[in-house]
Amino acid sequence: MFKIGEFSKLTQISGRMLRHFDKLELLTPQQIDDNGYRLYASNQLQDALKITSLQRAGFQLQEIKRMMSDDIVNDELQQIIITCRQRKEMEYKKVKKELSMLDDIDEILSRGTNIHTYTLELKHIPGHIVASLRQRIPKYSDEGRLWGMMMSEIMPQQPKFSNSMRKLAIYHDEEYMEEDPDVEIRISVDNIYKDTKHVTFKEVDEEEVLTITFHGSYEQIGNVNAEAIRWMEQNGYKLDGKFYCVYLSGPEKTEESEKWTTECCFPVKKL
C-alpha cells in the first residue's frame, strides 16, 4: 500500500489532483488508515495512468469516470469519443482563427481602426408580415435551435415566403448577455397564418434602416456596430430601435464562415 505522497510520485499526479479524483469518485483510495492517511494499492497505478492518458487525449473527468465504469456499453463509449472529438475540432478551429487574427494585429495597432472596409446604405423597408419566435436560449450560438423549431411548426401550413424574404434575428436584451440571451427570429411570409405553439404571425411597420453588408464570421458584428454609429454621428442620424441581423447566407448553407453573408440593419431617424 502507498501513502498519497508516494502514490503521487509514482504516478506523476499531484496530491491535490488525487484528492480531486477521490472527491469525484473517479479514483478513491483503497483504504484510509487509523491516522486518516489515504492508502492506494499497487493495482491502482494502472488506473491512475489510464486517467492521465485519457485527460491528455482531451476527455473531461466526468467522461473518463463513465468510460472506466464496468457497466458502460460500446455504443455509449463511442458516443463519448465522438463528443470529445467534436469538442476538440471546435477548439482547433478557434485556435486557427486566433492565429489568423494575429496576422492582422500590427495593422490594427498601427491604424488604431478597423481593418475591414464596409459599404453602408440607407434603405426604406416597407411594412410586411412575419412569422416570429422569441425565446431565451443558452448562448447566441444556439440560435439554430430556434430556426429548427420555427420551421417544424409552420411548415405543415405550407406558408409562402415573400419574394423579398427576410430571415433575421433581433436581440432584445438591454446589454450583451454571456448566457441566456433573449432572441427573436423572424422570417417574412405572404399572409397571416394560424399561430402555433411557439410561433406567432404578425405585421411589422415600415422603417428606414442603415444597412451594412459584410462577408465572413459573425465576430465582425462589433466592428460593424461601431462603423454604423460613426456614420450616424457624421451624418446627423440617431438609432431609432433595436438593430438586427438579416442572414443572406449562413451556416445552413456552408460551414465555411468566409462564405457567409450578413446584412446588419440599424433603424435610424434623422436628427
Automatic annotation (TrEMBL):
<dbReference type="Pfam" id="PF13411">
    <property type="entry name" value="MerR_1"/>
</dbReference>
<dbReference type="InterPro" id="IPR011256">
    <property type="entry name" value="Reg_factor_effector_dom_sf"/>
</dbReference>
<keyword id="KW-0238">DNA-binding</keyword>
<dbReference type="InterPro" id="IPR000551">
    <property type="entry name" value="MerR-type_HTH_dom"/>
</dbReference>
<feature type="domain" description="HTH merR-type">
    <location>
        <begin position="1"/>
        <end position="70"/>
    </location>
</feature>
<dbReference type="InterPro" id="IPR009061">
    <property type="entry name" value="DNA-bd_dom_put_sf"/>
</dbReference>
<dbReference type="InterPro" id="IPR047057">
    <property type="entry name" value="MerR_fam"/>
</dbReference>
<protein>
    <submittedName>
        <fullName>DNA-binding transcriptional MerR regulator</fullName>
    </submittedName>
</protein>
<dbReference type="InterPro" id="IPR010499">
    <property type="entry name" value="AraC_E-bd"/>
</dbReference>
<dbReference type="GO" id="GO:0003677">
    <property type="term" value="F:DNA binding"/>
</dbReference>
<dbReference type="Pfam" id="PF06445">
    <property type="entry name" value="GyrI-like"/>
</dbReference>
<dbReference type="InterPro" id="IPR029442">
    <property type="entry name" value="GyrI-like"/>
</dbReference>
